[in-house]
Amino acid sequence: ESGNAAPSQLQDSKNQGTSSEAPTTHRALLDWVQEVAELTQPARVYWVTGTEEENKALTDELVEAGTLTRLNPETFPNSFAAFSDPKDVARVEEQTFICSEKKEDAGFTNNWMDPAQMHAKLDGLFAGSMRGRTMYVIPFVMGHLEAEDPKFGVEITDSAYVVASMRIMARIGTDVLRKMEELDAFFVPALHSVGAPLAEGEADVAWPCNEEKWIVHFPEDRSIYSYGSGYGGNALLGKKCYALRIASVMARDEGWLAEHMLILKLTSPEKKDYYVSAAFPSACGKTNLALLDPTVEGWKVETLGDDITWLRFGHDGELRATNPEAGLFGVAPGTGWSTNPNAMRAIAKGNSIFTNVALTDDGGVWWEGMTDEAPAHLTDWRGNDWTPESGTPAAHPNSRFCTPIDQIDMLAEEYYSPDGVPVSAILFGGRRKTTVPLVTQARDWTSGIFMGSTLSSETTAAAAGAVGVVRRDPMAMLPFMGYDAGDYLKHWITLSGAANQDKLPGIFLVNWFRRTADGGFAWPGFGDNSRVLKWVIERLEGKADAVETPIGFVPTGDSIDLKGLDMTPADVEAAVRVDPAEWETELAGIDEWYARFGASLPEELSAKLAELKERFAAA
Ligand code: GTP
Ligand code: MN
Ligand code: MN
Fold first, then answer.
1. What is the three-state SS of 480-513?
2. 526 annotated ligand binder
3. Fewest CB atoms within 10 Å of the CB: 49, 126, 253, 427?
4. CB burial class (10 A; 0-12, 13-18, 19+) of residue 142?
5. How many CB atoms lie within 10 A of CB 372?
6. What DSSP designation does 515 have?
């Protein structure tokens, strides 16, 4: 008997034990699967192959179970909507742990618990946690299977929704497994359970999960455990857990960087290609910039990635970027035909899973900002009737679309290259109403790292607590660094210090969110950000003018191309103004932030802060 009947067949074969013959010769994987099955006690084990037929069988089952709603095949082919438990809608940062051997290796930005203590806790939680459910084994690779050193993982999960979503977000299945066998490769074991075992005869719910949630990383073992949540960032373990938290630790040990960045390709009117990566905190515009429709004449933008970038100094001394993911897991609200038509076109091709959006009466989806006017009637994300008068959001503010990346028309062909692309510029950005100019060029590489290390963003109404509070978010990696924040910054400095200094990218700080005195945005943003990208490239080419300020170089009023925009050079000057009073407050904030690092703050960065203070004092 094969150990891998189709999922629907497995549903019928109740007496199929957990010891069925597994379709691999990879000893370490077999042992781990066996061990997990013994611990979690699933009704059956299923090895995911990644085929179309398998996906069809799985999604059919999910529709029957009520987890997925099939959308209108004419408008959203092969697409589904899922509605989570209202208490399981986002990443749970307070329940996310980095369990390094030593507490100081997790650093002050992470939650930590002693690994032995955490393992004991997890063993208790996972014991019997898959009773009555199927245990799916998903071999996956982050990045290219043909990479020099492919980064394998295997997620074990008891959620078919996770299987269907992982299939979009990563390269999974039989091809990956064969390659793992061929190389007898190391893989990151990533164990996920929704934490909702079913007793004999007990009926399931549409979105099983547990009140108690734990997202745990053991950086020395390179292992991941996720319990109690089905939400993407907590449950699709290839993404934030592997490609950022565990990968950042691998990167530290192996000499590369795992970053919360988009990558885009820019082509100038002279047909010269440039690659730009950009790190902004969550919900601060990465997906929007990656899929930008340029308004500036003669410039073309293509996409390589919208959330995670792996950076390596290549043999030629250039910093090369790859996107380890295969899909988009984008914030739905605010994604619309007027702000992000490229994302909308990708979504409209189908093959997508939407989570916590609203349903239209004709079997489509809707969220705030998709169209200028809301439909007259919807079913909101909680399943209630909704009209524009309801006074509540129809879609959850953190509702998401999950779509294959190759459905993006503007996907750059280099996305498919395992060697990646050479980066010309790195942007750091956040959401700041005041203080931070539209764009500032760092005076040198280490000043750029300083900019990244002090990156900040205002909390939004969507998050608990006061609105508009400045939170420091180094390189937009605050929730994703798998080790000590000071060591992370030191790694940036030492790694780049050993690289070819002539080929280091330029670093720029951007802020699309600065306000004018009357409260409006100082800069139109979205497609017009292409005008800032043009200035960035022209600076690197030595063609654009700039003014030197204590924090770096900002554009002169007429160095930003405003053709076709209802803006004047004076408006640009206001958008890039460096206000000494605002910066006095900012420097105090940076002082406070740096004090929290203690001894682990690299001295190169405290030196940069001292220089900055001197420049303001002399100004
Ligand atoms: P994650 O996927 O969670 O990491 O977030 P992200 O960085 O991809 O954020 P996304 O692109 O989804 O942007 C989310 C929010 O930023 C939406 O509310 C957008 O409307 C807003 N936004 C994006 N770009 C701009 C811009 O240029 N100007 C302004 N004013 N708002 C923007
Ligand atoms: Mn993100
Ligand atoms: Mn995004």
1. CCCCCHHHHHHHHHHHHHCCCHHHCCEEEEECCC
2. yes
3. 253
4. buried
5. 8
6. B
Rounded CA-CA distance 449/312 in Å is 16
Nearest CA, atom 19, ligand 1: 334
From residue 457, give the alpha-carbon distance in Å to each of 440, 468, 547. 16, 8, 25
Instruction: Count the Cβ atoms, other than its own, within 10 Å of residue 284.
Output: 22
* Burial zone of 324 (CB within 10 Å; 0-12 exposed, 13-18 middle, 19+ buried): buried
Residue 25 to residues 3, 50, 182, 184, 185: CA-CA distances in angstroms?
13, 18, 9, 9, 12
> Among 89, 260, 284, 296, which is best to mutate for testing ligand 1, by the most ligand atoms less than 8 A from CB?
284
476-506: b (≥16 Cβ within 10 Å) or e: bbbbbbbbbbbbbbbbbbebbeebeeeebbb
Query: What would the mean pLDDT of 208-236 be, rounded to a whole number?
Result: 97
- Cα→Cα distances 313→147, 318, 324, Å: 15, 5, 16
Position 466 scores a pLDDT of 59
**Catalytic annotation, residues:** 284
ipTM metric: 0.99
Q: What is the pLDDT of residues 485-536, one digit of tens each?
A: 999 999 999 999 889 999 999 999 999 999 999 999 999 999 999 999 999 9
Enter the tokens of residue 149. Answer: 């050193």
Which amino acid residue places its CA nearest to atom 21 of ligand 1?
Answer: 285
